[in-house]
Amino acid sequence: MRAGSAESPQATSKAERLLQIRQRVERIGRLLGGEERINVVAVLEPVERGQVIAPVYDRSGRRINTPLQRARAQLFSERNELLLEAFALDPKFELPPGCLPPRVVRRVYFPVDRYPHVNFAGLVLGPRGVTQKRIEARFGCRLLIRGRGARSRDAGNDALHARIEAEGADAQQRVDACAKYLEEEILVPRKDEENALKIAQLRELAMMNGTLRDDAKIARLAVQRAQHTAIARRQETRTETDGLERDLDVFLKEIGANPEVDDVQGAVQPLVVGPPTAPDNTLVHASMVSFTRADSVAEPIPPDGPKASVQIPASKRTEHEPRKRRRSSLCEENATSTNHALC
């Protein structure tokens, strides 16, 4: 072998350590697979030396921490640590046949003893589990709520906590990043009005239930309603004005005035109102003012102001002249007869 092809001591030690890890992982796989018998004492003695392990039972009354179960759990943990070390030395490390990728589990406990009024589990789960799913997708891990108070069947008797699980070469990094996010962003007690996550969750829950009140939308609808009301009032006012103008036109036609002709001529004169066509000689009040007809005659206004008088149009004088003549003739006849009687 040439000197230039010789490997450095560091590379040699690295390759040797990877070989040792592979051999130990393969041996653990045979133990867990039942190909070899597990020596429970040899596995548990380095870990549980001098400890008294109390039995633990599940809800159905079965013991879940027998010595064999504890030995298998210890072998699983040792294999995971070896695989993580191997991937740290060589990211392209190939797993032995039948070996599962390393699995990392970490527990993040909720401070329910110090803050019993805060619903930390609800903040982690979110409305209908939306926040939990987002955290899992962000960090590529599995997030579970376990412990006393959890609603799952395998919650256990431990304190309420979040269980983070991940598999793969970078499982440890993803689990640590997820735990850090929970501890710094979610499990920090805040007031309700200052907790942005809780406000967003309540808004999202209202949106899911169909009870969300969008302030911007409500304001926009209020503005539109006010505009419609203003337009309706404007139309009502315009309708009332049109009705008054029609009433004025009818009144002017009844009294014989023609404002259209005077509008063309541009003349504005005091109204000269004649008696109605009925024979009761009813006079119209002189304060009514409008446009006059072309054939009406107006008296000059005296210096001391206008007098309350009613003038008769020239076109209607002919109707009353015979009556006045008859009255004058009767008065003359009566005066003549009276004079004869006196004589």
What does this structure look like?
Helix 1 runs antiparallel to helix 3 (67-89). Strands 1-3-2 form a 3-stranded antiparallel beta sheet. Helices cover 50% and strands 6% of the residues. The protein folds into 4 domains: 9-99, no CATH class; 101-212, K Homology domain, type 1 (Ribosomal Protein S8, Chain: A, domain 1, 2-Layer Sandwich); 213-255; 257-298, no CATH class. It has 343 residues and is mainly alpha-helical. The chain has helices at 9-32, 40-44, 67-89, 120-125, 130-139, 171-186, 196-209, 215-255, 259-265, 317-342; strands spanning 103-109, 142-146, 161-167. It is built from 10 helices and 3 strands. The model is unreliable at 1-5, 264-273, 278-298, 316-320 and 338-343 (pLDDT under 50). The longest helix has 41 residues, at 215-255. The protein starts with 8 loop residues before the first helix and ends with a helix. It is elongated. Belongs to the BBP/SF1 family. Pfam families: KH-I_KHDC4-BBP, SF1-HH. Its main location: nucleus. GO terms for molecular function: mRNA binding; pre-mRNA branch point binding; zinc ion binding. This is Branchpoint-bridging protein.
Strand content: 5-15%
Across the major sheet, the strand order is 1-3-2
Q: Which fold name fills CATH's third level, the topology of the largest domain? A: Ribosomal Protein S8, Chain: A, domain 1
CATH architecture of the largest domain, by name, is 2-Layer Sandwich
Number of strands: 3
- Number of structurally distinct domains: 4
Helical content band? 40-55%
C-alpha termini separation:
184 Å
Mean of all residue-level pLDDT scores: 76
Main pleated-sheet profile: 3 strands, antiparallel
